[in-house]
Specification:
mainly alpha; Extradiol ring-cleavage dioxygenase LigAB LigA subunit domain-containing protein; 74 residues; globular; 0% strand; 6 helices
Length: 74
């Protein structure tokens, strides 16, 4: 998976306000993110296990929650 998704997940890990923004306005967040089409598809799957597998990252419970919430709204 591309480096932009890894960077995006790092930002989500570090910034609680950004996590709230992504959960509350996923369309705006995705339009601002520099993710490729494939990266967006993985993130927007709403499946934290899939995101973790694709990126090789260990995701915090807070980030897993963001991924699940975004998947519910899209």
């Amino acid at each position: 998976m591309g480096e932009h998704l890894n960077e995006y997940l790092d930002i989500l890990e570090e910034d609680p306000k950004y996590r709230d923004f992504v959960k509350n306005d996923p369309h705006q967040a995705m339009s601002e993110a520099r993710l490729s089409h494939d990266e967006k598809a993985v993130f927007l799957s709403g499946d934290p296990d899939k995101v973790a597998k694709e990126t090789g990252k260990t995701l915090s419970p807070a980030v897993r929650d963001v991924i699940t919430e975004v998947g519910k709204h899209l």
